[in-house]
Amino acid sequence: MSRFVQPVPPPVDPYAGDGLLRSWLERHLGPAGHAAAKGRLADLAADVAGPLRAAHADAEAHPPTLVRYDPWGARVDRIDTSAGWQAQRAAAARHAVVALPYLPDARGTWGAAARVVQHALLHLYGPESATFSCPVAMADGAAALLSLPEVDNGVRDAWLPRLISTDPAVAITSGQWMTESQGGSDLGRSSTIGRPAVDGSWRLTGEKWFCSAADAAMAVALARPEGSGRGSRVLAPFLVPRYAVDSPLAHGLAPGAPAPGVTVHRLKDKLGTRALPTAEIGLHDAYAVPLGDPAVPGLVRAMTLVVVTRVHNAAAAAGGMRRGLAYARAYADVRHVAGGALSSSPLHRATLGTLAVDAAGAFALAGHAFALLGRVEVGADPEAAAELRIVAPLAKLSTGRLAVSSASEYVESFGGAGYVEDTGVPRLLRDAQVLPIWEGTTNVLSLDVLRALTREDAGAPLLARLAAAADLARPLSPVLADTLAGAAAQLGDTITSVTADPGSPTVLAGARGLALRLAYALTTALLVEHAAWGDEQAALAARLWARRWLRHEEIAEDAHHHLDLLC
Ligand SMILES: Cc1cc2nc3c(=O)[nH]c(=O)nc-3n(C[C@H](O)[C@H](O)[C@H](O)COP(=O)(O)OP(=O)(O)OC[C@H]3O[C@@H](n4cnc5c(N)ncnc54)[C@H](O)[C@@H]3O)c2cc1C
C-alpha cells in the first residue's frame, strides 16, 4: 500500500489574492494613486511568495546568537544573525517598507496617503518577515521622532537618511530601549540616568530589560536627566549609537565592536519572535545625544515614536490574520475529511468565514490608523490628530487580541500538522502572542483610552464618526444602521458617566470592556464607510462584524454561505 502524503498548496499571491486590500487602496488612493502603487506592491508580493518565504524559514530555523568574547578573551558582545534575517533586512530597505512615507517622491504622488501605501507594504511584508517587522516598526518610530522640529538638525542629518535609506548597504534600523525590569508599563519607575558631558552630548547609565532589534545600529533610549525629578513625564529620549563606528568615544575599537559603555548581558529565550534578537542591555556612561531639549519633559516627544510603533503593531496583527486565513483556506481545498474536501464542509467554512470577518475588521482598523497618521504628518490636520490620539491605542489593543484568538484557530484548522514545527504553522500562534504585550498591554492601553476620553475629550471624534456611519449604513441595512446608532448612544452615555468619576474603582475595572466596545463600534463604522463607497465584501463584513461584536449573535450560517465573498 502506498503511503499517503498530504499535498501542500502553493503560496498565494498576497496582493492579487486580497480583494479588500485592493479595494481599500482604490478608495484611499484613487484609481491613479492605486495604479502608481501597483508596481511596488506586486514586486513585494512576488518576493514574499518566493525568496522572502525561504529567508523567513531560514531566520526562524537559525535564531540569533550572542558571542560575548573573541577567541583571545576580549569582550565583543557580538550578535550573529542568519542569512535569512539579513535577507529580510535588505528586502525591507529595498521595498521602502520604512522609507516610503518619508520619500519626497512618495509624498508628491500620494501626499498624506503615502502612509496608506506603507500600510499596504507592511500588510504584505510582515507575516513572512520572521518578525523583521519589529525592527521596521522601531526604525519608523525613530524616524518620526527624528523628524520633529525640536530635534537638533545635525543629529537629524546624521541619522535620519540612514533610517529611511532604500539602499540595503546604507539602511539601518533602530532599537527602542524603554522597559526596565522594575517597570515596563510603569515607566515612572525608570532608573536610567542621563548626565550632560562637556561637549554637549550626554552619558547614560542604567539597565534596560527588553531591547528588541538588539543588532540595530542605534537605539532610542529613555532616561531621566539628572536632577529632573521623579515620574514619567520628565523622561527624555536619547539616541544611543550601538556600535563603535558611530561613537566618538570609541578610540581604537573595531568598527563593529559595541560602543563603549554598552554591554549586552544576554539574549532572551522567548516564546516566539525567535529570529528577532531581544537583549538585556547595560549602559555605563554610554555616549548619547538628546532628541529634543532634555530640560523639557520628554515623554510627550517619545510618544511620537510610540504612536508609530502601536499602529505598526495593529498592521502586524491584521497582516498576520489575513495571511493565516489565506493559508487555512488554501489548506482546506487540498485536505480531505469525511464528506469530501474540507473546504466544502459547512462547519469548516463557517469557521473560516468568521475568521475572515475578524480579519476584515482588523485590516480596516489598522488601515484607518495609518490614514490618520499620514494626515497628521503631512497636513498637520488637527482633527486627524485628535482622532489618532484614541485610535492608536484602540487599534493596537483590539487587533492584538483578535490576532491571538485567530492564530489559535488557524493552527487548529491544520489539525495535528498545525502543531508540528516544520510546517511553519505553530509560529503563527507564538508570534501573535507578543502583539497584545509589547508597546502596552491590553489593560495598560485601556487605561490610556480612559485618559484620552476623560482628559482630552477624545470620545467626541469617535462618536461623530459612529453617528455619520449609522447614516451611511441605512441604505445598506436598516438593522445595521440601528445597531450602530444604538451602540453610539450607549457609548455616549458611558463616556459621560466615566468622565464624571474617572478614578472610581468601577470605572477603572471597566476600562478594558469600554475600550473594546469602542474599538468594535469604530471597526463597524470603518467597514460601513468602505461599504458605502461600493465595496460588497465590506458591506457583508460590516453586517457580520456588527452582529458578532456589537449584538453578540452567532454568524456561522452566513459565514458559511458567503465564505467566497468574505475571503
Ligand atoms: C518579545 C518582546 C519584545 C519586546 N521588546 C521591547 C523593546 O524592544 N523595547 C522595550 O522597551 N520593551 C520591549 N518589550 C517589553 C514590553 O514592552 C513590556 O514587557 C510591556 O510593556 C509590559 O511591561 P512589563 O513586562 O513590565 O509588565 P508589567 O507592566 O509588570 O505588566 C504585568 C501585568 O500587569 C498589567 N498591568 C500593568 N500595569 C497595570 C495597571 N496600571 N492597571 C492594570 N493592569 C496593569 C499588565 O496588563 C500585565 O498584564 C518587549 C516584550 C516582548 C515580550
The neighbouring-strand order within the major sheet is: 4-5-9-7-6
Compressed to H and E, one letter per element, the order equals HHEEHHHHHEEEEEEEHEEHHHHHHHHHHH
Beta-strand percentage range = 5-15%
What oligomerization state is this entry in? single chain
Largest sheet at a glance? 5 strands, mixed, barrel
Structural class: alpha+beta
Q: How many DSSP H or I helices?
A: 19
Shape: globular
User: Ions, cofactors, ligands: which are bound?
Assistant: flavin-adenine dinucleotide
Poorly predicted spans: none
What is the number of strand segments?
11
- Give the helix proportion (percent range): 55-70%
Radius of gyration: 24 Å
Termini separation comes to: 38 Å
Average per-residue pLDDT, rounded, comes to 96
Give structural notes.
- By secondary structure, this protein is an alpha+beta fold.
- The strands form 3 sheets. A 5-stranded mixed β-barrel has the order 4-5-9-7-6. A two-stranded antiparallel ribbon has the order 1-2.
- It is built from 19 helices and 11 strands.
- The two termini are 38 Å apart.
- The model has no long low-confidence stretch (mean pLDDT 96).
- The radius of gyration is 24 Å and the shape is globular.
- It has helices spanning 19-49, 51-61, 83-94, 104-110, 114-125, 133-146, 153-163, 299-334, 346-379, 382-413, 426-432, 442-456, 459-473, 478-500, 505-509, 511-533, 536-550, 556-561, 563-566; strands at 65-69, 75-80, 174-177, 193-196, 202-212, 218-225, 236-241, 262-267, 278-290, 336-337, 340-341.
- The relative contact order is 0.10.
- It binds flavin-adenine dinucleotide.
- The site of flavin-adenine dinucleotide has 23 residues, from strand 3, strand 5 and helix 12.
- Flavin-adenine dinucleotide binds at residues 175-179, 183-186, 210-212, 270, 273, 278, 434, 437-439, 441, 443-444, 447.
